[in-house]
Write a structure and sequence with these properties.
By secondary structure, this protein is of the alpha/beta class. Helices cover 34% and strands 24% of the residues. It comes from Pseudomonas cremoris.
Length: 229
């Protein structure tokens, strides 16, 4: 059975910006992440999982309303199929019309050309969705992708770039995001004290990671609306 889990994303002042929507599956009494239960996936199964997530979001409108933007990662398999991608984006737009704010995260594993990506981003934005480059620093999420398209958010895979020699790149990302009104989010943050060290130039970025919160299964996370205030 697939369930939704939410992990909070925080502004630098600690206030909740929004939540990332994560899929979890209960197998033999254990709660597994997609990296575990999709490890041996067959063609088409990521598309089915993406559809399932959207359906679960639509089924939980009341619980998810008023808690801020919901960041939903769409798999590279879905994005690569234009018809499936546009169908899913339309479904997410339908959810937006019911009062939710949705940010579409573009998988770092998506490798189609810039023209195809731009078409999908324009389509999503035309229907009222926000868009985020996901896991910057991994696979195809790089500076060329960041500057080549219009984004609402840039989510940095912090462990992938967590060496001082990357400070110039991280500072360049920060400066680009500030100049172009792109929200900067550091993902997979396990220790906030690092922002007092060599990463201090990025201490104004929003944060997501175990240092701030762990994913909590929907309906087991009380008073979401209260926690977002």
């Amino acid at each position: 059975m697939t369930v939704l889990a939410l992990q909070s994303i925080h502004f630098s002042n600690g206030k909740v910006l929004g939540y990332e929507v994560l899929a979890r599956r209960i197998v033999s009494g254990r709660m597994l992440s997609p990296g575990q239960f999709m490890a041996n996936s067959q063609p088409g199964e990521w598309i089915l999982l993406d559809r399932e997530i959207v359906t679960l979001v639509a089924d939980n409108i009341a619980e998810l309303s008023g808690i801020g933007p919901l960041f939903i990662n769409i798999s590279a398999e879905t994005l690569t199929s234009i018809s499936d991608a546009k169908s899913l984006i339309k479904a997410l737009a339908g959810v937006c019309s019911l009062g939710l704010e949705i940010v579409l995260e573009i998988s770092e594993k998506y490798s189609d050309g810039a023209e195809s990506l731009d078409s999908l981003l324009l389509f999503a934005r035309s229907l009222g969705l926000g868009v985020a480059i996901d896991d910057f620093g991994s696979d195809n999420s790089n500076m060329a992708r960041l500057v080549g398209h219009k984004w609402d958010y840039c989510k940095i895979d912090l462990p992938a770039l967590l060496v001082p020699t990357n400070l110039a790149l991280l500072t360049a990302i920060r400066d680009y995001c500030m100049a172009n009104h792109v929200g900067l989010i550091l993902e997979k943050v396990e220790d906030v004290s690092i922002l007092s060290g060599w990463l201090k130039p990025l201490n104004g970025a929003s944060l997501q990671g175990f240092a701030l919160s762990k994913p909590d299964v929907l309906n087991r996370a009380p008073s979401l609306s209260q926690s977002s205030r």
